[in-house]
Every structure is written in structure tokens, then in C-alpha cells.
Design goal:
Number of helices: 13
CATH class of the largest domain: Mainly Alpha
CATH topology of the largest domain: TerB-like
Largest sheet: none
CATH architecture of the largest domain: Orthogonal Bundle
Number of domains: 2
Shape: globular
Low-confidence stretches: none
Order of helices and strands: HHHHHHHHHHHHH
Radius of gyration: 18 Å
Distance between the termini: 23 Å
Structural class: mainly alpha
Helix content: 55-70%
Mean pLDDT: 91
């Protein structure tokens, strides 16, 4: 699914506005928060002018009208944003609680949010963005470019609906991406690892540079690397076929 695919334009703007409220609730906008929110805006192609024109009342009404799945995704992204600096701020949590109360969603305070919510199988828009950014790191891990790996990066960006010019401009500090991953659901983390390992094994070998990239994630979530390789092999086959179809469509057009 592409970034916020089921959201209307106004709902996307409202979700971004909600994230900005969380980011500045502590009276400052951290670099990590700013860069990830800005990349979301660029990837979604949001009209900044319409964002500036949205009143507080309109924002409240749109957030209140979101269905359960949409409000849950906004909350999950908000949780990732507020978790980047590993500091719990009660002012940020007030906005999280406000949206949760609108939709009768029970959430626990940072850092135990995922202990209290269900319906987290799908990746959020921020999870998808972080995945593509990490995939870019993985394609360059060996210090040179391999066609088989770049093709998989193209596949992921197309799947997620992230424009190629956004991927090309991605220059996100690796530690920031790791911080974002640490705030995700276990399902999202497993999907990210599968995709990254699929890129690793695309040339039938695993280098120390590539393994070192995912080691912090494997350690943090205690994921079995060998089990991940098995799943990654299946995902690799699917993604390679996806690229072939993508290439054939490009040739026709």
C-alpha cells in the first residue's frame, strides 16, 4: 500500500498538522522530527498552502471524522515522532491522548504504546519512508552500486509511492533511522528486515558491511537472522518479478 493511500487530501494535511503539533509541543522542533515530517510532505505531494490555511477548528473536525484505521495510523506515526529523542514529554502526549480519546482508542504512555493497541500489522507511512531510506543505505553499503540491488530499491519506492526525486534527495542520518525503527510495531520491523535482507542476498552473498547495517535492529528486537533470510528469499523472488513487470510497463509507455 502507498503512503496514506486511503486518506483524502484534507485528511493527509490534517495528519501532517497533527504530527507538527506533537513535534513543537515541547517548544522546539528537533532536526530529526523536522526532516522526517518534511520528507513525508514531499513524498505525499501535499499543498503547503492548504496546510497553512487549515484552521484549528477544521483540523479538529477532520481528525474527529477519521475512521479507526486512519486515526490509528496517525497515532502510530505520532508515537514514532515523539520517540525520536527517547524522551517522554507530557505535552506531546496530550495531543496523542486527544486523538486517541476522539476514537475511543486506549493507549499507554511512552514507551509502551504497542502493548495497548491492536491493528498494527500494516506499515505506517513513516515506516514505509524509513524502509526506503534504509534500503538506500543497503544498496550503497559495499561502497559501489550493483544493478540487482538498485532494482529492488526502485521496487520499494514504487510500492510505497515515493517519487524517485525524493529517494534521490534522501540524506537522513543512519542513527535517526534506527531511532525511528525502535518506535515501530514488531510487524513493521520484521517487514523492514525482510526487505533489507532481500537486498543483501540479491547478489547471492552477504558482506560484513551489509550485516553491520541491520545488526542493531536484529539485536534490539531479538530477531532470528536465519529465519529472516528464509522469508527474505521469498520476498526477493516477488520483488524481482515486480521489477520485471515494472520494466515491461515502462517499455510499453
Amino acid at each position: 500500500m502507498r503512503l496514506l493511500e486511503k486518506f483524502t487530501e484534507k485528511e493527509k494535511i490534517a495528519c501532517i498538522s497533527f504530527l507538527k503539533l506533537i513535534a513543537v509541543a515541547d517548544q522546539k522542533l528537533d532536526f530529526g522530527e523536522a526532516i522526517l515530517i518534511q520528507l513525508l510532505i514531499l513524498s505525499l505531494g501535499i499543498d503547503i498552502g492548504r496546510y497553512d490555511q487549515m484552521s484549528d477548528q477544521e483540523l479538529y473536525e477532520i481528525l474527529a471524522s477519521l475512521d479507526h484505521d486512519k486515526s490509528l495510523e496517525c497515532l502510530r506515526i505520532g508515537y514514532s515522532i515523539m520517540s525520536l529523542n527517547h524522551i517522554y514529554d507530557p505535552e506531546e502526549m496530550k495531543y496523542m491522548q486527544l486523538l486517541a480519546d476522539m476514537h475511543d482508542i486506549e493507549i499507554k504512555a511512552f514507551p509502551k504504546m504497542y502493548e495497548s493497541i491492536k491493528g498494527t500489522h500494516d506499515m505506517t507511512a513513516l515506516d514505509q519512508l524509513v524502509l526506503v531510506a534504509l534500503a538506500k543505505y543497503m544498496t550503497l553499503a559495499e561502497g559501489y552500486i550493483k544493478k540487482s540491488k538498485v532494482e529492488l530499491l526502485v521496487v520499494l519506492s514504487d510500492m510505497m509511492g515515493i517519487p524517485s526525486y525524493v529517494v534521490e534527495s534522501m540524506d537522513i542520518p543512519f542513527d535517526l533511522l534506527l531511532s525511528a525503527v525502535h518506535s515501530m510495531s514488531h510487524d513493521s520491523v520484521e517487514r523492514i528486515l525482510e526487505e533489507l535482507v532481500a537486498i543483501m542476498i540479491a547478489d547471492n552473498q552477504i558482506t560484513s558491511q551489509e550485516y553491520d547495517l541491520i545488526l542493531p535492529i536484529l539485536s534490539q528486537f531479538q530477531v532470528d537472522f536465519n529465519a529472516t533470510i528464509i522469508l527474505a528469499k521469498e520476498r526477493l523472488i516477488y520483488n524481482q518479478e515486480y521489477y520485471r513487470l515494472l520494466s515491461s510497463q515502462s517499455e510499453i509507455n
